[in-house]
What we know:
alpha/beta; 39% helix
Amino acid sequence: MQFDVYGVGNAIMDLQVHCTDEFLQENNIEKGVMTLTEPEKQQEVLQALSNHAVHYCSGGSAANTIVGLADLGGRAAYAGKTGKDDFGRRYLEEMRDLQIALEVASADGPTGTCVVLITPDAQRTMLTHLGVSATLDATDIHEQDLSRSRYVYIEGYLFAGPSTRRAALKAIDLAQKHHLHIALTVSDPFLVDLCRDDFISLIEGPVDLLFCNEQEAKALTGHVDPIDCAHELHRHCANVALTLGRRGSIIMHEEQLIPIEGVAVEAVDTTGAGDMYAAGVLYGITHGLSWQQAGHLGSHAAAQIVAQLGARLPRRYTHAEIEALLA
């Protein structure tokens, strides 16, 4: 089987729950970012919100994109490590139901979890315990599946840990060996300070498609205007997709700036919106769409995510539905 994309990332089970801004302040939780924490802190937070419903969904930045690609009709493989527990079994079942190839053996220990706190403005704040996802290593990269893919998609969070960094670099090395395209998503603004050297080296080197949001682009380039950021990144990277929230996105391709419209929706939860945008773009460029059409698809798919709770499309798209959307 040939794959459109081989993704590499942290396999995390998301536990999504609504809260107020006051709750974040009272519990000294920094809003709008991902913070690494321990299971005890997660349970403490969930207990304090026990009168709120919890929504469970297999997640992780690259995993969200890979699932989105599959829901759009693409073919995908994924490298992420789960535990031999209920969350891990549920995670693998969800992936395999979508016919996503996942050849990484489960490990002893807990599956990674992320408590996603959603405030009334639809912003998400993440408290993450990586669990065994942090033990993903170079030996877990399945060369046969990777070699049969058109793109390798790397999650920026991987560069925050030594083991997962080795896995990411192994996937990139194999992609170069097999002459594949390499896409990187920065994942989170805080990672730029932590992993700047890795990111700059990759952007100036093997990566030919960079996904980032406005805050990440500013942190990478030092520029204030997102258009200046896009041009600066494009000096080093063949293709850049820079998201601007409700204002849409910018795609840089062959020295052309392609503006992509935003899609107006009533925001419920922004979790996974950037990941789904990447899924739409990757599906598009691996299925014969122009970069503008691919960005258009990504923008509409992301809007579907923002308008609901959870980082999964409400249903799988048919080819006819995608054609109608593009028309």
